[in-house]
Design brief:
This protein is of the alpha/beta class and 275 residues long. The chain is 44% helix and 16% strand. It is globular and about 50 Å long. The protein binds L-Erythrulose (LER) and manganese (II) ion (MN). L-Erythrulose (LER) binds next to loops.
Amino acid sequence: MGKWKYGVSAALDAPKTAPILLTGDICDCLREAAELGFQAIEYHTRENAALDTAKIRNTMERTGCQISMLVTGRLYTQGHYSLTHNDPENRRAALEGMLRYINLAAELSCGVVLGWAKGNIREADSLRAYFERLTDGLRVLDQAAAERHVPIMIEVINHYEVDVFKTSRELCEYLKRHKFQNCLVHLDTFHMLLEEENFVEAIQTAAGRLGYVHLADTTRWYPGSGYMDYKPVLRALNDVGYKGYLTIECFPRENAKECARKGLRYLKTLEETLF
Ligand code: LER
Ligand code: MN
């Protein structure tokens, strides 16, 4: 048994330009991921998707493959809802959507990833309005998630995509100010490559709050495809006691299944040589 559980990104459907490796029905993705040697998938889905949770639980039991997270980005990119939108009706719909994800996640014993659906400062009336709305929304979600034992992983995303929480420090400072019970830090090496001056420091900054990790190489291809140095990253994750999932979230260039297979082999070999 290694230090970490390995996961892979999955969705019902996704364009080739999205960092999703497995596509199809969630149960088929669980079977495929298990065959490839993964312990989990994360599933990018809409909040109102008709998911048969009893069937999914049964498939998780039979395959031994879990769902690590439900990823909520499509609430924003497809539904155009955000927790900080200027329109209160839109904010209410975003909150309801997030609560749906949390309820689904409770049934599937997994967490939720919050990234895009927190919205952007540039889209809100003011910086102050943005943070008031975000904190109000997160308080409600945090309480609901805590009651259901569902962690909320707030993803640190690069500045080409969002304008808030672009570094580990920025998010950690916010989380320190507001004492949420169930909101954790989610780092992604693709975004870190664009924003963090020092990977090890970024991981150390999140020590004790780090809940989830996405891995991709330079050019966001599979781990081992580029010139990203994973050794200090894995060492730092080990040093801060991170025991969660390492999920490959990368572009499916050429053959998606091969990317998943090669990325997993690379990471497991590295883990074995390092520890
Ligand atoms: C999602 O995990 C992510 O990393 C974003 O870049 C997707 O837009
Ligand atoms: Mn990511």
